[in-house]
Amino acid sequence: MNWNRIVLVLAGAMTVALGAVQPIAGQGIPQPTPAVAQTQSPLSSTSAIAKEAESWLADLIKINTSNPPGNEQIAAMYIAAVLQKEGIKAELLELTPGRSAVAARLRSAVVPDPSKALLLVAHLDEVPVDKSRWTVNPFAAVIKDRYLYGRGAIDDKGMVAANLAVFIALKRSAAHLNRDVIFLATADEEASGDASVKMLIAKYWDKFAAGYAINEGGNVFLKNGKVQYIGVQASEKIAANVAVVAHGTSGHASQPTKDNPVVHLAAALAKIGAYSPPVHFTSIVRRYFEGLAPLEDDEIGKWIRSLEAPDRGEHAQRVVSEASPLWNAMLRDTITPTVLSAGVANNVIPAEARANLNVRLLPGDSIDAVINDLNKLINDPAVKLEVQPNAGLAAPPSSLESDFYNIITKVASQEFGGAPALPFQSTWLTDSAQLRLHNVQAYGLVPFPLTQEDLRRMHGDDERIPLASFDKGVDVLAKIVAEFAVSH
Ligand SMILES: [Zn+2]
Fold it and tell me: Residue 274: pLDDT above 70?
């Protein structure tokens, strides 16, 4: 079937359901490869479907969904076409022109029970690239040394393709489900704007309402060729932006003044850069470090065990924070200057200088308390702090006692050579916070074993996924979902 025909068929169907669908630029859009007939239960052997999923992933990488502008609708339509070939009806959920999520459901019963349903969720958009810094075309899905290169290969089209594989495997196997399984690919995750999961929930919640979800957010950490541990995200930090604004008197740069706002801003930022907010433990972080201590070498393990010791806790917190930017950010609120602006000409003292602080709060901490501490630290009446709109909302953590959490940790640990599965509080944001605010027990696990080196490329250059890790991840995800959602 040719792509334009798929688009026409889909557009016809979607127009009925949703009203207007944006026209699609048909040129260069990959079309899904034909479905392969399965002879045995695809959930007992996933190697064939993992190979198909590799080609879906490659096709998705070729659809540029850099956000902004996103253009996720093209990727959503591609997925709808893949599902349609399997006899699964997918719905495009339009958010803004050209930006859609896509959802599909495998039913367990005539009357759905949303409180039991399982959502397989991933996002279609990706961060932009600086092409000049890549060694390959980021949108060509180049395979080199058994790595698939491309923007989104890990974050998060890898998970989109893996979810799709597991969802289709369930359908092909005609497995008897004990709960509905819903596939959802969201838009605008990277920018949390007008097409994000928040809007999606507001507009279309009944299309994918669920009690449980698996999403990105946690990882399978590979070290020295072995899985060191599996971090299952059950909570995440909250983002807010704060403007630092210094005011002064504008004038001729030939006669420097004491109230030059550039100087005041720079002094304030220097203090912020040297400041380390106090350590707060959440129960998830405490359990994470307890599980991590025996996995690290003796020296750092000793300090991890001493994090809350009355006598040397403070020193331990410093050692552990300095050993890893991730650990540092798991232990405390963080305040990161990101954007600076001041000045209109080289020979003019400006009246105002501004900086943006990207603040990441631990769940339970408040931005007002941070502002209070920063005002004391800066201690300069010429400098004001302004909290910017759209600060994130704290979501309750997902339960570490739920059946789904137990299955995820048990299966992942078994499948990754007995490596421990630890609860994880991500320092980054995911769509799960919004789901948790709607009573979804959402867990983050990108099921592909990845090294720090590969994880580092995620929002950087030459993002890539080892194909063996992808295949393994599809298999592990299939086992998790089968154990939770298939009647045995
Ligand atoms: Zn992501």
Answer: yes
Cα 151 to middle of ligand 1, angstroms: 11
35-44, 346-355, 419-428, 445-454, range with the lowest pLDDT: 35-44
Compute the distance between CA of residue 440 and CA of residue 351 in angstroms, rounded to an integer: 49
Encoded tokens for 424:
């994880």
Between CA 445 and CA 180 the distance in angstroms is 20
- Ligand 1: centre distance to CA 159 (Å): 9
pLDDT tens column, 342-388: 999 999 999 999 999 999 999 999 999 999 999 999 999 999 999 99
- Are the CB atoms for 215 and 162 separated by under 8 Å? no
pTM comes to: 0.89
**Spatial distance between the Cα atoms of 429 and 347, rounded to a whole number of angstroms:** 42
Residue 155 Cα to ligand 1 midpoint, Å, equals 5
Cite the DSSP H helix spans in 296-431.
Answer: 298-305, 313-323, 325-331, 367-378, 403-415
| C-alpha distances out from residue 480 to 117, 168, 384, 388, 404, Å | 14, 15, 50, 40, 9
Q: Dump pLDDT digits (tens) for 50-99.
A: 999 999 999 999 999 999 999 999 999 999 999 999 999 999 999 999 99
Cα(430) to centroid(ligand 1), Å: 7
126 alpha carbon to ligand 1 midpoint, in Å?
Answer: 7
Q: How far is the CA of 277 from the centre of ligand 1 (A)?
A: 27
- How remote is the CA of residue 143 from the centroid of ligand 1, in Å? 22
User: C-alpha 150: how far from its chain's center?
Assistant: 17
Three-state secondary-structure class, residue 246: strand
Q: Which of these, 463, 422, 139, 138, lies nearest to 294 by C-alpha position?
A: 422
